[in-house]
Fold these 2 entries.
Entry 1:
Amino acid sequence: MLRTKPCVEMTFQQADGVPGSGRRALRAWSARQPCCSRSAISQVTDGRFMCTGCGTWYSASHSGSVLGCARSVRPVGIDVQVDCHRPAAMRAVAKICGLDHGTITHWTIVEAMLKATGQVGGVPEPGSYLLPEIVPGCGTVHLPGTGAVSVVTGVWAMTRVAIAVLEATAEQSWRPSCAEVG
Ligand SMILES: [Zn+2]
């Protein structure tokens, strides 16, 4: 079970990736387990998904045959990635995270943070998402101008998962906040 603070609900399923599958999965989830009595998912201008009934934030990600969804009262981003050999992408991730070597876990964290902050498709500046070389299961990253982002990482069906949630209060650096996630 993955847990974050503030609370995030998440669901995973095996699914083929076709355009719009994330959005459809979010709508199916909100119909099956509504966040409120007027549950309706819409996409806001920065690409993030939100329930117009109660303001709950939603996010979806697909990789390989895994589709992950997350929702929270705070802006949330989820990223799933199957392990793959992409040296150029790992070098780019390393620069963003201020590291010698990037990993798939770093990549999922960066993608989840881009989604949580409404910057999908953006390319962060080198050193803008400073992460430790070894990423523990949970931690907090401070983004200048944005504040603190809680991150939790784990694995579902052999697929890397990262979930990022904007916190209401600011933190100054990465701080491990739990020992084990799985
Ligand atoms: Zn709602």
Entry 2:
Amino acid sequence: MSPETASQEETESGSGKNRSRVGGRVTLRGDLRLAVPDAAAAFGVTAAVFVFLYVRMGSGTSATVAVMPFMDDPRTYWMYLLSQAFGWSALLWAWGTVMIGLLVSGTRPERLRVSPQTLERWHRTTSLTTMALMLAHALMFAAELVRYEAQLGWAERLWAAFADSFVPGWYDSGTGQIAIPIGQAALYLAVPLGLLFYVRHRIGARTWRVLHRFVIVVYVLSVWHTLLYGTNVWYGEWPRTVLWLLQIPVAVLLLARLVGPARRSERLGKPGSVRRLPWWTLRAAGRVVVAGVAVALLVVALSGRDGGRERPVEPPSTSPHPHHS
Ligand code: HEM
């Protein structure tokens, strides 16, 4: 989740911007410093979402409680709520950084009055913030599990919470058996794909660029994980519709980026030679698939056939997932 064009970023200059560089190169340490205001805003958003979820749980309108009635107590489950809040800010920041990244690597709309250098900087800082938020989301879930497994000794408690949250395949209850590994895959891919930017002088700019493209997979996994597991988007109600609708601009920008990449060498053009035809066909097919996805997203959102369940009139009788023994 870092910018596409090293060449543009090398030309960046101006007050305050060069503090993130050593010998003309952007450094992680410098970008971490630049990310402070962005991260502060993200924590503000997280706090607002937390309060919202807390109040909803207290007032009996929480979808989470409708799915899991035993959670009808925000004072006990505040860490779970905080985990959810970090999940939402992580997803929002992931959305933002992907959108900015696509603007950097695609053709920028003329109306956009932000310089490519500024966009790149925003892309770098928001991607660092996204990683921190994703980690905070998983850590708060682990913290809630530590609280929950009170019958175990401390070592087992910490291990059970760590394994359930961070070891793929360990969590063995309900939808989480699939949804949690998807979230873990998103987190574990985001970190190297994002941070490789800072060592691209070692691995080569081309290798970095090729690897960095896979960051879109991180985003798709994050959205998939949320649609599958988020109890606040469990039912076919407005939050789920909004989540689907938010994916349309991403698909449109991705298509625009593929059709009009900033780098001349990435334009589709003509196949050139018969030898290049399979590769050209693959790239052309990619554009058609993304266009199809954009249309499909619109159909899903407008038709309401979005995988949301019907909210039951009577709350289901559920219990927390079994304690580890
Ligand atoms: C180690 C990785 C992860 C773990 C253990 C994890 C765990 C969970 C759990 C247990 C839930 C269910 C909460 C609920 O009841 O709604 C959840 C939901 C969610 N997760 Fe994750 N997750 C991980 C990675 C991610 C990533 C990478 C994102 C991306 C931004 C993300 C975003 C969300 C969102 C937005 C929700 C919905 C929360 C809600 O409904 O209020 N998660 N996650």
